[in-house]
Amino acid sequence: MDAWHEDAYYRNMRVVSTNHEAHDHGVYSVSFSPCGEKIVSAGQDMEIHVWNATTMDLLATTRLDEDDHDKYIRAHDHYIREVMFSPNGKRIVSCGEDHALHVWNAETLVQEGYVKWAHSGSIWSCHWNAAGTKIVTGSSDKSIAVWDMTSLSKSDRTHNVKLIKRFEEAHQWRVFATRFSPDGEYIAISGGQLFESELTIVETHTFKVVAQRADTHRGIIHSLDWTKDSLELMTCGEDGDVRLWNPFNLTLIKEARGVHFAGILSCEYSHTQDRIATGSKDLRIKILTRDLEIIATRVRPHDSRITAVHFSPEDHLLASGGWDGRVHVFGPGKKDETFEERRAKVMQEDAAKAEEALLKNFGKVKDAATENDKEL
What we know:
With 376 residues, the protein is mainly β. The chain folds into 2 domains: 334 residues, Methylamine Dehydrogenase, Chain H; 39 residues. Helix content is 11%, strand content 42%. The strands form 7 sheets. A 4-stranded antiparallel beta sheet has the order 1-28-27-26, with no helix packed on it. The longest helix is centred in the C-terminal third of the chain and has 37 residues. It starts with 6 loop residues before the first helix and ends with a helix. 45% of the residues are buried. About 1% of the residues have low confidence.
């Protein structure tokens, strides 16, 4: 059994790899590669980094030469809001507050696709479909757009991403998150402002609204995720709550109120679908069961709000990013000890220390006796 599926391991999850200076400023997004060996991160410093997931050694970066300003470029001209590996792990997509959409080679971070004005507002979300043939983006301009990833021109790597379809006024408020359903048939859209929230499900090919609801959360819905069978949708938001929905009529299946004391900025199902990870403004990471029972809490792994959490493909690791510019990788800790096991361990340690002290004192007495014999 994978250790992450035993609750005791969750309760003792520990940082197994980290980079305290991963970014110069806050991290907004982290994502594992499909093979689980790499992590991509991006954020307020407008740069993209690819890391070894085990050691957090830097493998690739969009930063060319910080000391030589003639050669120094950034991946985006403003904050990068989301970054994600393609399903085959060969490409990375990024979007940001500069209204731009970029597609990168995952090995070298050489640009392979680009749209300068993908939206008229900040792009808060970008997501691949399961086939890796399309990307959906959502923006503060209230619209979503679907882009073709099958016809990128290698001769012209600027403005070579073709728009398939755009849905203007997809929301009444800003769009914060977009996600293809795993079967590719639907797109979930979430957003809001202040004390308003909005959740919409549309058909991928026609943008026909399947379901729409405005009272889903008390405030912005920051993050959402589908189950693998496309039959359940999870949302989390500014109210600190987690809710599970029927995506076809947006009736509430289950909810957990007050999971966090402040807004939840990221939530995700594990790949086995039996666990949920959340990261929040309250500086906590929590692990929940599918029934929304909290089984683990990690307090203050970052020095500022936690903006992203992401399970590795085999669920044995969890990556997190925060406003402190750090990227952490958590792994399972040791099993909880029973009271009897702990008491026996302490007694054994105390006995060993007492024996060591006794032998040490005996040695001193023996040395002193030997000296006295010599004097006589």
